Amino acid sequence: MGSGLLTLGTRAMFANQAKLDTIAHNISNASTEGYSRQEVQLSTEGGRYTGAGFYGRGVKIDTVTRASDSLLARDYNNNLSIASADQMRLDKLTQLEKALATGASGIGYAAGQMLNSFVDVANQPQDLSARQVVLSKAAELASRMSTAGTQLNDLQGGTLSDMKATVAEINSLAARIADMNQKIASVTGVGHEPNDLIDQRDLLVKNLSEKIQVSTVPADDGSISVFIGGGQQLVLSNQASTLGVQADQYDATQGRITIGTGNNQRTLDESLLTGGSLAGLLKVQNEDIPAARNLLGQMASALSWRVNQQQSFGLDLGTPASAGAAIFSVGTPQVLPSNKNTSSTAFPPVTMTVIDARELQASDYSLVEDPATPGSYRLTRLSDNTFTSVADGDVVDGFRINIDAATIASGDKFMLRPVGNAALSMKRVLDKPTGIAAASPVNGTLGTANTGTATVASLSIVATPSTPYDAVTVAFTGASGTGQDYEIRDSGGGVLVSGTWQPGSPIEYNGFELNLNGVPKDGDTITVAPTLYPSSNNGNALSLLALRDEDIVGRINQGAGGTAPGATITNAYSQVIGSIGVRVQDAMTSATISATLAANSQELLTNKTGVNLDEEAARLIQFQQGYQAAAKILQVAQSVFDTLLSISR
Q1: Across-strand partners of 255?
Q2: 273 φ/ψ angles, rounded to the nearest 5 degrees
Q3: Is 595 exposed, middle or buried (0-12, 13-18, 19+ CB in 10 A)?
Q4: 483 Cβ contact list (under 8 Å, min separation 6)
Q5: Is residue 227 a contact partner of residue 219, using CB atoms and an 8 Å limit?
Q6: What Cα–Cα distance (Å) separates residue 242 from each residue in 171, 219, 257, 524?
Q7: E strand or H helix at 488, and its extent?
């Protein structure tokens, strides 16, 4: 009898001791990241048969389990991946937004100041100080454009560096998970789970989810397989694949994610990487930075092209006066051949020529062979994925594509960037104040015998003349409805062209545009002749000043001579700021929502698997009392045994 009590008491003490040890382990690790609450599982020892029935043999320790919920853990890891991606993108977009200043320090303000400075030149064409102000404002504008372009390039460089660091962390975590799989599998056969090892592995999976979204599949040996990007194997048992960052086939400043083992790497489909900080970095690299760079480049290209064009229409203060030289230069359109092309990558067989920068769009383009039309190529505008079939010499969105069919190879691919490099390389190239072409090459004079009220409102050069400027006379020949018929005659009286003037509409001929105030009458004349004294003429300065109100950015050629209007330079910059602001706001909203979902998921998981110190303290007292009671059983067993011994004496 004493022996039975001794066995029962001993087993009870061992069971309560195990409970106390586990509770102490829980309390010790209450603040340990990734730790899951453990609990000793007990069961009744099998009964001992006697003639009087089955007598209980006490308690036995089955195993130690950990609190877990695979569904809650998977939900938490997925939400954590999305939150990490959103937060990473928000952090980068915040940096991008700082590169595009607003107010007096912004590019839009500098562009407006530069164009407004032509007011003083128009008032005093011979004043060199007024001309110097124009050049100073032009230099400031170019500097701000270039600085913004440099900051965007620096942001891309930082993003690529972060991608490489993130990939290195992913590889380290994957290797550690594979190593942990090996440790777990090696002890799983003993019949009990290595709880602390599993907790450590789950923590590694959670940390990995912050970097890249993963899915896991358990195996019979206790190991797990980890997959990314729609089923790409990252970890299988104790083997881990490695990710890499290789240069983009078109642009070496951008990185592409690869996966494989050793030197056998293959490119991942980045569209399948939807979570983790790596996905956020990829979205910034592939969408946000190119969009900002192209919007800025579109502005730089359009403004510099239009200012230079108008400058070329006028006459400077040189002796003799000559057509104005360019004020600005910008980065040329880039053709980026794939490094897989068989044709020359140093001298690609495709080039671009800007025809009308006002029609350039804020986008990169992809050019590949068109399988449906031999000898033609498919040009895809990447900003909206619209495509068209093009051949050598075709003009699209303000630029002409030049294709050397003799050297281009079948299967060659190209990335076209009409405006991506423009802002980065923008600079003022005109240094002499006398070089500003403030004078118009022609001026208008009213006939002395005119009887109408018409006066010259403006006489502007809007295009390169088809023939050298000679004196011509605009002669009004009679009323026609609400307008007046006119003829443009040469110096000998020969009619060159004729038409009908309508109020508010200009008279155009040989590159000039004549606008009138008032109404001419039959017999009135206006002579348009070469400017004799360019130093006192302000016609082209007024035209340059008018550029501040002209829609020079983002016109859309609708074909058949139709053009959808663009934006003024200041409005264009406001649209750039607005576009980036919308991206930042969207990213901020997404980051807030996803962070809340991740926090809620973590709370649910913690409630299920975490350590509650109040509960553990109560259980500690409970099993302390159980241990004391078991000790009492041993005392009773000893007393019974002593009684038996005394009887035998």
Answers
A1: 247
A2: -90, 95
A3: middle
A4: 500, 501, 502, 503, 505
A5: no
A6: 6, 21, 10, 84
A7: strand 483-489
Q: Say what the alpha-carbon torsion angle 558, 562, 567, 572 is, to the nearest 10 degrees.
A: 20
Predicted confidence (pLDDT) per residue in 358-404, tens digit: 999 999 999 998 887 777 899 999 999 999 999 899 999 999 999 99
**3-state SS assignment for residue 400:** strand
312: alpha, beta or left, given left = phi > 0 and alpha = psi -120 to 50? alpha
Candidates 408, 384, 169, 360; CA nearest to 287 is 384
The strand pairing partners of 247, in sequence order, are 255
Amino acid identity of residue 196, one-letter, is D
118/548 Cα distance (integer angstroms)? 10
Helix H or strand E segment including 246:
strand 242-247
Q: Indicate the pairing of strand 525-530 with strand 442-446.
A: antiparallel
pLDDT digits (tens, 9 = 90+) for 163-217: 999 999 999 999 999 999 999 999 987 778 999 999 999 999 999 999 999 999 9
What are residue 489's phi and psi, to 5 degrees?
-115, 150
Distance CA 644, CA 641 (A): 5
| Alpha-carbon radius of gyration of the chain | 40
Q: Is 0.85 surpassed by the pTM of this model?
A: yes
